[in-house]
C-alpha cells in the first residue's frame, strides 16, 4: 500500500468580461491576424475591479470542493499559486481560507509565476504523503491584467485572468494502477530571471510594477526545458508517450504547445488546448484547462494525465497524475 495524493475534484472560475483581439487593436498597434497567427489567442477574460485573485480563487476552490462532494471545513491545507496576490501580505490563501469557512489548517501562497501550480502540487503532495495534512485545496489564481503595461503590444495581448483548483486527498492506493500524483519534477534556473519579470516590488521600488518579457528568448527556452522535463517524468515513471491519455500544458502560446507535443510525438488530439479562449493565465492556466477537460468529459477517472508549465525565474516542471 502506498499513500498517494488523489485528485477528488476540480473547479475553475473566469471573470465576467471577455476581451477580443479586435478590442485590443483599438488600444494598441496590433491586429487579430497577428495575435492569432503568432499565439493562437482569440480572446481573454479580464477582471473587473470587484473581481480579485482571491475572489476568483474562492470561486474555483468552491467548485472543486463541490465536485469532490466534501465539506469545505474538511480541507486542512490550502496552497495557492499566484504572482498577483490581493496584497503583499497576508497570503491570498488565507483570504480564500476565510471565504470558504475552513479554519485551523495550513494556508500559504507559492510564487513560481506560470509554473506556480506545478510547484503548488509538488508541495501539497509532499505534505499529504508525509501526513502533515489529509485534504488539500491546490489553487492557481491570477489577475495578470493588473500588472500588464497596456501600452506594450508585445505583452498585453498575451495574458488573461482566471483561476483553477483541485482537491487532493491522501489515500492508501493498492494495485497495479494506483490513482493520484505519481511523479513530479520541478526545476529553476535563476540565471534567466531578467527575461521575464515585473519591474517593481515592495523591497525595490515600493510599487507593484509591470510585466516585462523578452518573448523570443522565453519561447526558445520553453520548448527545450519543457521537452526535457516531460522526458524526465516519463523516464522516472517507466512510461512512454503512448501510455499518456492527455497532456495538459501551460497555455502560453499555441506554437509552444505544438512544438512541445511534436518533440514528444504526442498527437494533437491528446493535448488540451484552451489558450485560444483564455490566453496565458499564468499559474491558473493548467488547472483551468484541466477542469475544462474534466467537465466536458474528455478526461476520465483512471486516465494518465501529464501536466507541465514553464515561467518566470525561469521555473518549470511537470507532473504525472492518474485521475
Ligand atoms: O508564460 C510563460 C512565458 N511566456 C511565454 O512562454 C511567451 C513566449 N514567447 C512568445 O509566445 C512569443 O515570442 C511572442 C508571442 C511573445 C512573440 O512572437 P514572436 O514570433 O517571437 O515575435 P517577435 O517577438 O519576434 O516579434 C515579431 C514582430 C516584431 O516586429 P519587427 O521587430 O519584426 O518589426 C514585433 O514588434 O512582431 C511585432 N509585434 C507585434 N505586432 C503586432 C510584437 N507584438 C505585436 C503585436 N501585434 N501584439
Topology summary:
Elements: E1 2-13, E2 17-20, H1 21-25, H2 32-39, E3 43-46, H3 53-68, E4 77-81, H4 92-100, E5 106-110, H5 116-129, E6 135-143, H6 153-156, E7 161-173, E8 180-188, E9 196-198, E10 211-213, H7 215-237, E11 246-249, H8 254-263, H9 275-278, H10 285-295, E12 304-311, E13 315-322
Parallel strand pairs: 4-5, 4-6, 11-12
Antiparallel strand pairs: 1-7, 2-3, 6-7, 8-13, 9-10, 12-13
Helix pairs in contact: 3-4, 7-8
The structure holds oxa(dethia)-CoA (UT7).
Explained architecture:
The protein has 323 residues and is an alpha/beta fold. The protein folds into two domains: 2-173, Thiolase/Chalcone synthase (Peroxisomal Thiolase, Chain A, domain 1, 3-Layer(aba) Sandwich); 180-322, Peroxisomal Thiolase, Chain A, domain 1 (3-Layer(aba) Sandwich). Helix content is 32%, strand content 27%. It has helices at 21-25, 32-39, 53-68, 92-100, 116-129, 153-156, 215-237, 254-263, 275-278, 285-295; strands at residues 2-13, 17-20, 43-46, 77-81, 106-110, 135-143, 161-173, 180-188, 196-198, 211-213, 246-249, 304-311, 315-322. The strands form four sheets. The protein has a five-stranded mixed sheet, sandwiched between helices. Strands 8-13-12-11 form a four-stranded mixed sheet, sandwiched between helices. The chain has a two-stranded antiparallel sheet with strand order 2-3. Helix 3 packs across helix 4 (92-100) and helix 7 (215-237) packs parallel to helix 8 (254-263). The radius of gyration is 18 Å and the shape is globular. The mean pLDDT is 97. Oxa(dethia)-CoA (UT7) is lined by residues 30, 34-35, 38-39, 114, 153-154, 157-158, 196, 215-216, 218-219, 222, 252-253, 256, 280, 310-311.
Amino acid at each position: 500500500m502506498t499513500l498517494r495524493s488523489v485528485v477528488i475534484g476540480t473547479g475553475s472560475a473566469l471573470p465576467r468580461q471577455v476581451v477580443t483581439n479586435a478590442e485590443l487593436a483599438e488600444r494598441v498597434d496590433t491586429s487579430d491576424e497577428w495575435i492569432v497567427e503568432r499565439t493562437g489567442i482569440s480572446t481573454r477574460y479580464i477582471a473587473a475591479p470587484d473581481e480579485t485573485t482571491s475572489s476568483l480563487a474562492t470561486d474555483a476552490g468552491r467548485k472543486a470542493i463541490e465536485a469532490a462532494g466534501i465539506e469545505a471545513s474538511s480541507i486542512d491545507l490550502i496552497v495557492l499559486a499566484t504572482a498577483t496576490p490581493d496584497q503583499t501580505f497576508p497570503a491570498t490563501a488565507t483570504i480564500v481560507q476565510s471565504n470558504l469557512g475552513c479554519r485551523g489548517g495550513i494556508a500559504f501562497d507559492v510564487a513560481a509565476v506560470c509554473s506556480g501550480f506545478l510547484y503548488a502540487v509538488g508541495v501539497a503532495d509532499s505534505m499529504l504523503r508525509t501526513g502533515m495534512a489529509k485534504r488539500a485545496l491546490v489553487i492557481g489564481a491570477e489577475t495578470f491584467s493588473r500588472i500588464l503595461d497596456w501600452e506594450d503590444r508585445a505583452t498585453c495581448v498575451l495574458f488573461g485572468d482566471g483561476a483553477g483548483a483541485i482537491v487532493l486527498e491522501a489515500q492508501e492506493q493498492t494495485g497495479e494502477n494506483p490513482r493520484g500524483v505519481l511523479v513530479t519534477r520541478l526545476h529553476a534556473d535563476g540565471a534567466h530571471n531578467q527575461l521575464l519579470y515585473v519591474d517593481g516590488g515592495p523591497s525595490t521600488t515600493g510599487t507593484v510594477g509591470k510585466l516585462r518579457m523578452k518573448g523570443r528568448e522565453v519561447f526558445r527556452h520553453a520548448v527545450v526545458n519543457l521537452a526535457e522535463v516531460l522526458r524526465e517524468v516519463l523516464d522516472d515513471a517507466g512510461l512512454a508517450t503512448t501510455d499518456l491519455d492527455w497532456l495538459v500544458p501551460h497555455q502560453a502560446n499555441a506554437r509552444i504547445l505544438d512544438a512541445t507535443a511534436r518533440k514528444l510525438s504526442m498527437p494533437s488530439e491528446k493535448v488540451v488546448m484552451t489558450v485560444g479562449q483564455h490566453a496565458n493565465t499564468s499559474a491558473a492556466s493548467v488547472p483551468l484547462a484541466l477542469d475544462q477537460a474534466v467537465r466536458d468529459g474528455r478526461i476520465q477517472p483512471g486516465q494518465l494525465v501529464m501536466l507541465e508549465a514553464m515561467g518566470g525565474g525561469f521555473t518549470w516542471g511537470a507532473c504525472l497524475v492518474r485521475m
